[in-house]
Amino acid sequence: MEFQKDNSFFTGRFKSMGFALKGAIKLVTTEHSVMVQTFIGILMVFAGFYFHISHEEWLVQTLAIGLVLGIEGLNTAVEKVADFIHPEFHEKIGFIKDIAAGAVFFAAMTAIAVGLIIYVPKFL
Questions:
Q1: What is the domain-level CATH number for residue 45?
Q2: pLDDT, tens digit (0-9, with 9 covering 90-100), for 110-119
Q3: CA 104 to CA 68: how far, in whole Å?
Q4: Which residue, of 38, 54, 79, 88, has the fewest CB within 10 Å?
Q5: What is the pLDDT of residues 25-38, one digit of tens each?
Q6: At 2, which helix (H) or strand (E)?
Q7: For residue 2, what pLDDT is reported?
Protein backbone atom coordinates (compact mmCIF):
# COMPACT_ATOMS: atom_id res chain seq x y z
CA MET A 1 0.00 0.00 0.00
CA GLU A 2 1.40 3.35 -1.00
CA PHE A 3 1.46 6.26 1.47
CA GLN A 4 -0.82 9.09 0.48
CA LYS A 5 -0.31 12.46 2.10
CA ASP A 6 -3.42 14.23 3.34
CA ASN A 7 -3.18 17.76 1.94
CA SER A 8 -6.10 19.09 3.95
CA PHE A 9 -4.93 20.99 7.01
CA PHE A 10 -7.70 19.97 9.39
CA THR A 11 -8.14 16.33 8.40
CA GLY A 12 -4.36 15.92 8.32
CA ARG A 13 -4.09 17.29 11.88
CA PHE A 14 -6.89 15.06 13.11
CA LYS A 15 -5.24 12.01 11.58
CA SER A 16 -1.92 13.00 13.17
CA MET A 17 -3.61 13.42 16.55
CA GLY A 18 -5.20 9.99 16.12
CA PHE A 19 -1.82 8.40 15.41
CA ALA A 20 -0.31 10.19 18.41
CA LEU A 21 -3.11 9.04 20.71
CA LYS A 22 -2.77 5.48 19.39
CA GLY A 23 0.97 5.60 20.10
CA ALA A 24 0.45 7.01 23.60
CA ILE A 25 -2.03 4.26 24.41
CA LYS A 26 0.37 1.60 23.10
CA LEU A 27 3.18 3.13 25.15
CA VAL A 28 1.18 3.21 28.39
CA THR A 29 -0.35 -0.25 27.94
CA THR A 30 2.71 -2.20 26.77
CA GLU A 31 5.80 -0.67 28.41
CA HIS A 32 6.26 -1.45 32.10
CA SER A 33 8.56 1.50 32.79
CA VAL A 34 5.99 3.87 31.28
CA MET A 35 3.24 2.21 33.33
CA VAL A 36 5.24 2.88 36.51
CA GLN A 37 6.07 6.45 35.51
CA THR A 38 2.44 7.13 34.57
CA PHE A 39 1.32 5.80 37.95
CA ILE A 40 3.85 8.03 39.72
CA GLY A 41 2.67 10.99 37.62
CA ILE A 42 -0.93 10.31 38.64
CA LEU A 43 0.14 10.09 42.29
CA MET A 44 1.87 13.46 41.94
CA VAL A 45 -1.30 14.98 40.49
CA PHE A 46 -3.26 13.70 43.49
CA ALA A 47 -0.53 15.05 45.80
CA GLY A 48 -0.84 18.42 44.07
CA PHE A 49 -4.56 18.55 44.82
CA TYR A 50 -4.06 17.30 48.38
CA PHE A 51 -1.37 19.87 49.20
CA HIS A 52 -3.02 22.69 47.23
CA ILE A 53 0.13 23.53 45.29
CA SER A 54 0.32 26.91 43.55
CA HIS A 55 -0.29 27.56 39.86
CA GLU A 56 3.45 27.89 39.31
CA GLU A 57 4.08 24.59 41.07
CA TRP A 58 1.41 22.95 38.90
CA LEU A 59 3.12 24.27 35.79
CA VAL A 60 6.53 22.93 36.77
CA GLN A 61 5.14 19.62 38.01
CA THR A 62 3.15 19.12 34.79
CA LEU A 63 6.21 19.90 32.69
CA ALA A 64 8.32 17.46 34.74
CA ILE A 65 5.78 14.66 34.31
CA GLY A 66 5.51 15.35 30.59
CA LEU A 67 9.29 15.50 30.26
CA VAL A 68 9.77 12.08 31.83
CA LEU A 69 6.98 10.43 29.84
CA GLY A 70 8.07 12.08 26.59
CA ILE A 71 11.73 11.13 26.95
CA GLU A 72 10.72 7.60 27.99
CA GLY A 73 8.64 7.37 24.83
CA LEU A 74 11.60 8.40 22.71
CA ASN A 75 13.82 5.93 24.59
CA THR A 76 11.33 3.15 23.89
CA ALA A 77 11.23 4.09 20.20
CA VAL A 78 15.05 4.02 20.00
CA GLU A 79 15.12 0.61 21.69
CA LYS A 80 12.44 -0.82 19.38
CA VAL A 81 14.20 0.46 16.25
CA ALA A 82 17.57 -0.81 17.48
CA ASP A 83 16.13 -4.24 18.28
CA PHE A 84 14.43 -4.37 14.87
CA ILE A 85 17.62 -3.46 13.03
CA HIS A 86 19.90 -5.71 15.06
CA PRO A 87 18.01 -8.26 17.23
CA GLU A 88 21.17 -9.90 18.59
CA PHE A 89 23.44 -8.12 21.06
CA HIS A 90 25.79 -5.67 19.41
CA GLU A 91 28.16 -3.38 21.28
CA LYS A 92 27.27 -0.28 19.23
CA ILE A 93 23.52 -0.92 19.55
CA GLY A 94 24.00 -1.36 23.30
CA PHE A 95 25.87 1.96 23.43
CA ILE A 96 23.01 3.72 21.61
CA LYS A 97 20.42 2.18 23.92
CA ASP A 98 22.45 3.18 26.98
CA ILE A 99 22.57 6.78 25.79
CA ALA A 100 18.79 6.83 25.29
CA ALA A 101 18.33 5.36 28.78
CA GLY A 102 20.69 8.03 30.12
CA ALA A 103 18.37 10.70 28.72
CA VAL A 104 15.51 9.14 30.70
CA PHE A 105 17.73 9.17 33.79
CA PHE A 106 18.35 12.92 33.41
CA ALA A 107 14.64 13.60 32.95
CA ALA A 108 13.74 11.45 35.97
CA MET A 109 16.34 13.13 38.18
CA THR A 110 14.96 16.51 37.11
CA ALA A 111 11.43 15.38 37.98
CA ILE A 112 12.60 14.11 41.37
CA ALA A 113 14.28 17.46 42.07
CA VAL A 114 11.07 19.27 41.09
CA GLY A 115 9.05 17.00 43.39
CA LEU A 116 11.41 17.56 46.28
CA ILE A 117 11.41 21.33 45.80
CA ILE A 118 7.62 21.41 45.73
CA TYR A 119 6.75 18.87 48.42
CA VAL A 120 9.53 18.86 51.05
CA PRO A 121 8.44 22.31 52.36
CA LYS A 122 4.89 20.98 52.72
CA PHE A 123 6.19 18.42 55.24
CA LEU A 124 8.43 20.81 57.17
A1: 1.10.287.3610
A2: 999 999 999 9
A3: 7
A4: 88
A5: 999 999 999 999 99
A6: none
A7: 65
pLDDT of residue 4: 66
**Calculated CA dihedral for residues 49, 33, 99, 58, nearest 10 degrees:** -10
Residues contacting residue 116 through CB under 8 Å, at least 6 positions apart: none
Query: Residue 19 falls within a domain, yes or no?
Result: no
Structural domain includes residue 13: no
pTM: 0.86
**What residue ranges of the chain have pLDDT lower than 50?**
none
Asked whether the CA dihedral 52, 54, 58, 64 is positive or negative, the reply is negative
Domain interval for residue 36 = 32-123
